[in-house]
Amino acid sequence: MNWKKNISMIIIILAVSLSHGSRMEQLSKLMPLDEISVSVFENPDFETNTMITEIGEISMPLIGKIKISGLTLEEAENVIEAKYSDGFIKSPCVLIRVVKRAQEQVTVLGNVQNQRVIEFDSNRGLTLTEALGKANGPTLKADISKIILTSIDANGQPQSKQIDMKVIIQGKTKDIQLQNGDLIYVKESMF
């Protein structure tokens, strides 16, 4: 009987490692509007295919709403396992698989050829240089030494900083990895 349990655990471990895919996927955070599949080993009635709500929650059988936005796959699995082990299932094993990632967005405004919202895959990311390229580059009037990047901090507050794109282009500083919701404003040159 014990060997059956050992084989079951080996199958679970293999399934988890195969379904989680790349290391980047494991480390990336779940976000609102991601479509996910949640399985609870040996409890097929609790399997759920759902979309994370705009406020970052999913609803699971018996335990109700759980906030998982901002967590990695492993962290979310641990949260759900803790809820189920609190009087519902002895030693639950939860597996979350991302079915489809929500598209992240940045907005590029100001002195660029094509002001626009740019969607990008959260697993791949997007740099400032790539975003400006997708906006067809700066206009002739642009001052690329004075680009304003506004991001939302952990407290939900906007934080702006001025970036000198010239030092990035010259390789003197690392390109900036953008976050979902960032606003890039390219100022006009005074000359």
Question: How would you sum up this structure, described in words?
Answer:
With 191 residues, this protein is an alpha+beta fold. It folds into 2 domains: 2-100, wza like domain (wza like fold); 103-188, Roll (Outer membrane lipoprotein wza fold like). It is built from 5 helices and 10 strands, in the order H-H-E-E-E-E-H-E-E-E-H-E-E-H-E. The protein has helices at 2-19, 23-27, 73-85, 128-134, 165-169; strands spanning 35-40, 48-51, 57-60, 64-67, 94-100, 103-110, 116-121, 142-152, 158-163, 183-188. It has a 5-stranded mixed β-sheet. A 3-stranded antiparallel β-sheet has the order 2-1-5, with helices on one face. A hairpin with a 3-residue loop joins strand 3 and strand 4. The longest helix is centred in the first third of the chain and has 18 residues, at 2-19. It is elongated. The relative contact order is 0.14. The model is unreliable at 16-24 (pLDDT under 50).
Give a quick summary of the entry.
The chain is an alpha+beta fold and 191 residues long.
Considering the chains and any ligands shown, give keywords for the structure.
single chain, 2 domains, 191 residues, alpha+beta, Outer membrane lipoprotein wza fold like, 3-stranded antiparallel β-sheet, wza like fold, 32% strand
